[in-house]
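LysR family transcriptional regulator
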Amino acid sequence: LAIGELKRSSKERLRIGLCERIACSRIATALSTWRQTHSDPDLQIVSRSGRALLAEIDAGLLDAGITAMCITEPGMVSDRLWTDPWVAALPKGHTLASKRALELADLARELLAVLAPDPSGMGERQIIEHLPTVDSPLFIAERPTTALALMTWVEAGCGIGLLTATQGEGVAHPNVILRPLRRGLPPAEIHLLRSDAPPR
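Tokens:
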């Protein structure tokens, strides 16, 4: 993350809005490194998503935001940080858990919980758009808002969870196994958002 290149409101203060659905150790490491390279830094991290994140960046209340939203609005600069592949979370004893990777077709007739990293629902729409390649339609039974809630749902035997690899790594469960999806579903994209206006 090019945190050091951000236009900040003051030399030793950095205000970041973070969508909690994509919070991970990768982001924490980058922000920790920034703190270590600045004397007595003032790092402020707030949980924001959707339109609230954009509004506060535009108003100068935040220096930047980290999100899975794809933004093309005037006055906003969006830099892709990394891509995050989708994985399936299965109960340890599930018949599909023995496979090293899954196809979308493997998920047909399964109850699914989807945790999209983008609160606008773009991730879920991507899944639905790729369903024509599957003989039987997928059934989305639950839409949890946190990875922990999804893992609890899966561990309880309610069905299979779909989330990104980074989301899954952050809440590892001993009785839940993560398996990559072999092909057919584009990865989520994580972006750094900032205003192209001078810092306030």
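The chain has five helices and ten strands.
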